[in-house]
């Protein structure tokens, strides 16, 4: 697993695409599924899909972190003893400094109870395997804005965007021009200052 080095406060690590992991202990099988997600609703949909697909499994435990500082998070033991499943899964997300990620571990019971240490180890190792099989990527946190400006300001606006390495998401050029852009968090103050003669609206 190659992890980019975080150098800016608006940079964080996630995974590029879904990946899987596997861990077996005393007949129990732990299937780990890691997904890149950016919304809690998206995570819940994936969890529901996995529960339908692996309906015959005993447990579907998970944890997720969302946002560039991981401020949206949740963990769930799904019937396992408290803190033996969701917490070790979440712990792997923290130790690998990953966000915008969901990991679901599906357990097939092998007939032998593993005890608290065995469960913690199993969910941790299954998650670690899924992360090890993933491509780690650097993401840049930002906010979306709409810029409105006069056509005569076009060259000035385009120069600012080029200098700040901002690519318009959408644009509409008429007598009054409009652009939607994403600005990285560390550039927002500079963005406002450079385009103070235009109308800027923060998108929600």
Supply the key terms:
29% helix, Alpha-Beta Plaits, 204 residues, 2 domains, alpha+beta, four-stranded antiparallel beta sheet
What features would you describe in this structure?
By secondary structure, the protein is α+β, with helices and mostly antiparallel strands. It has two domains: 128 residues, Ribosomal Protein S5, domain 2 (2-Layer Sandwich); 61 residues, 2-Layer Sandwich (Alpha-Beta Plaits), CATH 3.30.70. Helix content is 29%, strand content 35%. It is built from five helices and eleven strands. The strands form three sheets. Strands 2-3-6-4-5 form a five-stranded antiparallel sheet, with helices on both faces. Strands 9-10-8-11 form a four-stranded antiparallel sheet. Strand 9 and strand 10 form a beta hairpin. The N terminus is likely disordered.
List the helices and strands and how they pair.
Layout (H helix, E strand, L loop, with lengths): L10 E5 L3 E7 L2 E9 L3 H14 L5 E8 L5 E5 L9 H10 L5 E8 L6 H18 L3 E5 L1 E9 L3 H10 L6 E3 L3 E9 L3 H7 L4 E4 L2
Antiparallel strand pairs: 1-7, 2-3, 3-6, 4-5, 4-6, 8-10, 8-11, 9-10
Helix pairs in contact: 2-3
Which architecture of the largest domain per CATH?
2-Layer Sandwich
Gross geometry: elongated
Q: What is the first-to-last residue Cα distance?
A: 35 Å
Number of helices: 5
- Average pLDDT, to the nearest integer? 93
Residue share in β-strands = 35-45%
Low-confidence stretches: 1-7
- Secondary structure category: alpha+beta
Indicate the percent of residues in helices: 25-40%
CATH topology of the largest domain: Ribosomal Protein S5, domain 2
Strand order of the largest sheet: 2-3-6-4-5
Compute the CA-based radius of gyration. 22 Å
The main β sheet shows up as: 5 strands, antiparallel
Query: Any idea of the CATH class of the largest domain?
Result: Alpha Beta
- Following the backbone from N to C, one meets helices and strands in this order, namely EEEHEEHEHEEHEEHE
